Amino acid sequence: MLRSLTLLVICQFVGEVMARALSLPLPGPVVGLLLLFAGLAMRYPRGSDVPAPLRSTAQSLLGHLSLLFVPAGVGVMTQLDLLSANIVPVVGSILCSTLAGVWVTGWVMQRLARPDVAPPAA
Amino acid sequence: MTQLFHVWVYLETTPLLGLVATLCAWQLALRITAIAHGHALAHPVPIAIALLVVVLLATGTPYAAYFQGAQYIHFLLGPATVALAIPMHANLSRIRASAGAILPAILAGSVTAAVSAMLLARLFGAPRAVILSLAPKSVTTPIAMGIAEQIGGNPSLAAVFVLFTGVVAGLIGVPALRLIGVRDWRAIGLAAGTAGHGLATARVLVVSETAGAFGGLAIGLNGVITAMLVPLLATLLVR
Description:
The complex is a heterodimer.
Chain A: H1 2-21, H2 28-43, H3 52-62, H4 70-73, H5 80-85, H6 87-112
Helix pairs in contact in A: 1-2
Chain B: H1 2-13, H2 16-35, H3 44-59, H4 63-75, H5 77-83, H6 85-90, H7 92-97, H8 99-123, H9 128-134, H10 141-151, H11 155-179, H12 185-205, H13 209-237
């Protein structure tokens, strides 16, 4: 578990350094995600044979992913004035555009992707 | 009484208070969500945020003081984002098999979400700063804040919009897609990640690891696409 957590933090760190050094339009953790994915794909090209501790660490971290958004969300309290003055355009715009985004992405993907033939992931 | 006051003064200076408050609010929000089971609108994230905002406003605690403790939870977003690589890798063969469909789908969804958000906000008469802060709302918070700043929006406001978008996408995503006949978990995951970043992905990940994998992929790719396209779209659509 601690080894897996170390690996995740190292990936984030390297991602952070790369994002800044190369001034990529991506935050460090997303670069770290892509690095770890590339590394895993090279080391375990078959997809499902990742060491169990890494899998379980990822699962326990991702199982609480929603909680991790709360501290930033509480920041809403610093924007209450601007928000309440524009509540109708904001809510209307977000509801409709999110629905449109979900529909378009899902529809295009289902249209273009060949039927799922890959074996179910373990 | 003065003893109690001293305890409070001490607690206010330690990060412990923000940490305890966040974790307790989260447990309470989970409890409320469980009680409201079956009600589609029950989502623990907005409930926890509302609880915390009420408590902070009532006690006169500034956000910065709260964040001193809450930052430890906030920090875990980084390693958790990296960890999305693992469900993605578990679905490597699926991703390879549908590589040609992934990019057009994300591109279409990304442009649709950003353009419709800006046009609707303009139609509803929102001021320029609000419209520009809405443009990057579909991508993960750090990217969205960066884009908002770059195009003349308000980064804190953008962070709020990102969160709201993620909650909405998480709540309506699966039923809305069912409605138009999209049942493929790859498509559902990709749509959740593209339109609602990590928050909507967290929601579909619970139901299907495949959906979570495609959501993770969409968060990364949509981040890149949005960072490149939104500044351009903003100059075209917002005067």
